[in-house]
């Protein structure tokens, strides 16, 4: 039993450490996944707290994983992990059986799992953690209390500091389809043989105190203003094969509403896309941005500012074309606001946070040198 408990401890511990660290690499991605769940439950008021919640969850997963491996305070952590895995199993079960969430985000964007895979993984962990709870009194710590406390303090500090770093400087490992080296046009292409999910829009109305549901093809014959609209949702009719383009809904429009995506991504010359969801903290990056724009103009490198907050961008920025794009798309492509994309046609040559704007200048210099030598 001692050896079995040791194997279980290491299995559970390493899985939680891996899960916590891979999500700590991109805490904003986890916060957006939380918002997806909250939107499904109409808990939109919690959106402002999801980043803090995501960071805390990542810290706890790593901390608990290390604690289980060294056997520190097993009475406490075995029960905490049991509660956590029950919560995770509920989330993955909801994603699996409701069909409203495509991926649970258990291992972030670097290792996407289907709802079925995530649910099976959580059931497996639930069994292992239950064994730890039952036999927790047989587990002895492998480190002295002082050494264990120092180790866990270092783990907590490092995980916290790492998350603050990637929020400002972009994830260390970029697992998104907009990562450096990717061709955005290719990422937007639907794979051969892809079959999309088939949905029916179902409406919920109220009449004479009763709630009624019907789809767009079966409206009541007496439908009129006496029907009170309550909600609408999509009902899955036929499951597709899961194949789809890695980038969807990416569209760049000018201020006149004209789609310029193909024209922008098809340019032969080098250019820069600057993506910013909004203009809320412009004073943090305005000076560096203006310096980059000025340098780019001197080197004949076009710069385009892409945002979902075009009205304020036009008011606050000068000498740069403004393009509009969906906020969700920008948040996926650019975790930091703003993020600089150095582009060659549709290929991302470099992807750099505003916090490392000096690297943008260095990259422009290097790229210009290569152009002269071609």
Overview of the molecule:
The structure is a single chain. 48% of the residues lie in helices and 15% in strands. It is an alpha/beta fold. The chain folds into three domains: 2-169, no CATH class; 198-238; 261-372, Glutaredoxin (3-Layer(aba) Sandwich). The strands form two sheets. A five-stranded mixed beta sheet has the order 6-5-4-7-8, with helices on both faces. Strands 2-1-3 form a three-stranded antiparallel beta sheet, with no helix packed on it. Helix 9 links the parallel strand 4 and strand 5. Helix 3 runs antiparallel to helix 6, helix 4 packs antiparallel against helix 5 (115-134) and helix 9 (286-298) packs parallel to helix 12 (357-372). The termini are far apart.
Strand count, sense and barrel status of the largest sheet are: 5 strands, mixed
DSSP helical segment count: 12
Number of domain units: 3
Strand residues, percent: 5-15%
* Largest sheet: spatial strand order: 6-5-4-7-8
Helix amount, in percent? 40-55%
Please report the distance between the alpha carbons of the first and last residues. 68 Å
The average pLDDT score comes to: 91
Q: How many β-strand runs? A: 8
Regarding quaternary structure, how should these chains be classified?
A: single chain
Order of helices and strands: HHHHHHHEEEHEHEHEHEEH
Question: What is Rg?
Answer: 25 Å
Structural class: alpha/beta
> Which consecutive residue ranges, at least 5 long each, have pLDDT under 50?
369-374
Shape: globular
């Amino acid at each position: 039993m001692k050896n079995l408990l040791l194997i279980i401890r290491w299995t559970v511990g390493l899985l939680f450490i891996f899960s916590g660290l891979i999500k700590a690499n991109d805490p904003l991605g986890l916060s957006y996944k939380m918002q997806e769940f909250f939107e499904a439950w109409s808990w939109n008021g919690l959106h402002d707290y999801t980043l803090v919640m995501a960071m805390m969850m990542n810290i706890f997963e790593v901390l608990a994983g290390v604690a289980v491996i060294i056997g520190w305070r097993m009475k406490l952590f075995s029960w905490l992990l049991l509660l956590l895995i029950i919560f995770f199993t509920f989330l993955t079960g909801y994603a699996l059986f409701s069909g409203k969430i495509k991926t649970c985000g258990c291992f972030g964007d670097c290792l996407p799992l289907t709802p079925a895979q995530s649910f099976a993984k959580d059931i497996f962990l639930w069994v292992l953690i239950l064994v730890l709870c039952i036999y927790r009194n047989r587990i002895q710590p492998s480190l002295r209390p002082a050494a264990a406390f120092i180790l866990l303090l270092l783990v907590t500090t490092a995980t916290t500091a790492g998350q603050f770093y990637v929020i400002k400087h972009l994830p260390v490992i970029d697992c998104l389809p907009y990562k450096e080296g990717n061709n955005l046009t290719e990422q937007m292409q639907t794979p051969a043989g892809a079959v999309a999910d088939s949905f029916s829009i179902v409406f919920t109305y109220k009449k004479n105190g009763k709630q009624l549901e019907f789809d767009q093809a079966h409206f009541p014959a007496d439908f009129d203003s006496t029907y009170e609209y309550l909600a609408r949702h999509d009902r899955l009719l036929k499951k597709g094969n899961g194949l789809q383009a890695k980038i969807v809904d990416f569209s760049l429009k000018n201020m006149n509403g004209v789609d310029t995506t193909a024209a922008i991504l098809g340019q032969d010359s080098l250019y820069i896309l600057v993506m910013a969801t909004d203009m809320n903290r412009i004073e943090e990056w305005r000076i560096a941005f203006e310096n980059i724009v000025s340098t780019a103009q001197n080197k004949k490198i076009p710069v385009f500012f892409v945002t979902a907050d075009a009205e304020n961008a036009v008011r606050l920025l000068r000498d740069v074309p403004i393009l509009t794009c969906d906020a969700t798309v920008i948040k996926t492509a650019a975790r930091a606001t703003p993020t600089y994309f150095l582009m060659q046609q549709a290929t991302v040559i470099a992807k750099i946070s505003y916090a490392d704007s000096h690297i943008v200048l260095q990259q422009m210099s290097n790229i210009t040198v290569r152009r002269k030598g071609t």
